[in-house]
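[Meeting: bench + compute handoff]

Bench side (C.D.) handed over the final construct sequence. Compute side (W.E.) agreed to return the predicted structure before the next meeting so the bench team could plan truncations. Sequence as handed over:
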Amino acid sequence: MSQARQILQQFQGTPTSDGAGVSLTRLIGSRNLDMLDPFLMLDYFASDQPNQYLAGFPEHPHRGFQTVTYMLAGSMRHKDSLGNEGVIDQHGVQWMSAGRGVIHAEMPEQKQGLMQGFQLWVNLPAKDKMSAPAYQEFPAEQLAEEKLAQGGLVRVIAGTTKQGTQGPVKQLDIDPIYMDISLPQGTSFEQPLSMSANAFVYVIDGSVAIANSTISEGNMAILSPGDEVILEGLSPTARALLVAGEPIGEPVAKGGPFVMNTREELMQAFQDFQTGRFL
């Protein structure tokens, strides 16, 4: 018999800024939730005020984890030390594994208008922290889509829906699920999940119900263990992000742009970067 997930914890994020002064809301990596293994950080940004995003995220290093950028509106240009360069437009996604080290920049491609999206940091297991950097980028047309009743829609970035719609991102260690779900009022969406996976839902617009509990716009919910989650739209424009992944279960040493397993490894990352031995 299936076990539906419920809401364990619900909270709003912490307003802050990052990069060269980009205004955002920190949901994971905040005072409310330090991490949710394997997820290290989640930022949500949404502004139509250019002075809140134009400074962007100039060149900076990463080691030991993955960054996932998903754009809901606007355009962001990415350039890194691997020679990759491209623009992430609306509903485009970039999934980058920093591995042993990468230096990259993410800068707004637009000068005005709404810029909205998420950046998620996903941990790497110890065996992969010093692996070669890797990069996946998918424009909106390469995301899988599944239509629901009454105009509902699921954009599948990673994972597979109950109906078999599969996202393009490949990342085996944590078996990720990353879905953007639009649920008009009265529409529901059921997603199978591994019992051992950690999972959360963030409501982008309107409100949704999970196991008779309501989550409103701007709120994040951590889900209890279970092998499925059922989301129900409670407002005409309800929209939510569903993310899940298998916990890695290893020690985490975080410092600035580096995430390793021990403090010694963390100090080595800083030393490598400062002495030009990073790449």
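W.E. noted at the follow-up: The first strand starts at residue 7 and ends at 12. C.D. will use this when planning the next construct.
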